[in-house]
Amino acid sequence: MIKEVKTQVNVGVEVDVLWKAFGKDLKDILPKMMPNLVKDADMLEGDGGLDTVYLFNFGPGLKTMTYQKERVTEFDEFAHRIGLEVIEGGHLNHGFSHYKTTFQLTSTGEQETLIDVTISYESQVEEDTIPSNSASSTLIFIKHMENYLMNGAT
């Protein structure tokens, strides 16, 4: 049975800048903003939009995973919504049979964006820590992106 965990966070980055980072520049930004965790990233299929497949190779800071392939399963440029589903490696090698993260970006001010995050997952392992660990690691990722973008990165 697929379960969901939801969280949200406000960031001090304008929605269009954040959308470009999520929707167009993800493979280039991740290794720069978290070099200890993401060694490199490649776009294996697509152009960054719907059905694009990314390969993320993890660095020494992530001991439990070496790589993860993700497919863009939702992409709505107008609504600023993107969904990334793990299709190989990563979370699927750690007891998950389904793992998808959806980001909904909403402008809340000139330099502010609300990010609603939905993580849907199915796990063969019943652990109470899975939802909170998934949500907190996603929030850490978002804060890294916010810091990266606020410090003049393009």
From TrEMBL:
Q: Enumerate the Gene Ontology biological process terms.
A: abscisic acid-activated signaling pathway; defense response
Q: Provide this UniProt record's keywords sorted from A to Z.
A: Pathogenesis-related protein, Plant defense
Give yes or no: UniProt keyword Nuclease.
no
Q: GO MF terms on file?
A: abscisic acid binding; protein phosphatase inhibitor activity; signaling receptor activity
Q: What InterPro entries does the annotation carry?
A: Bet_v_I/MLP, Plant_def-hormone_signal
Q: Which residues form the Bet v I/Major latex protein domain?
A: 3-151
Q: Which GO terms describe its cellular component?
A: cytoplasm; nucleus
Family recorded in the similarity comment? Belongs to the BetVI family.
- Protein name listed in UniProt: Bet v I/Major latex protein domain-containing protein
Give the organism, scientific name: Populus tomentosa (Chinese white poplar)
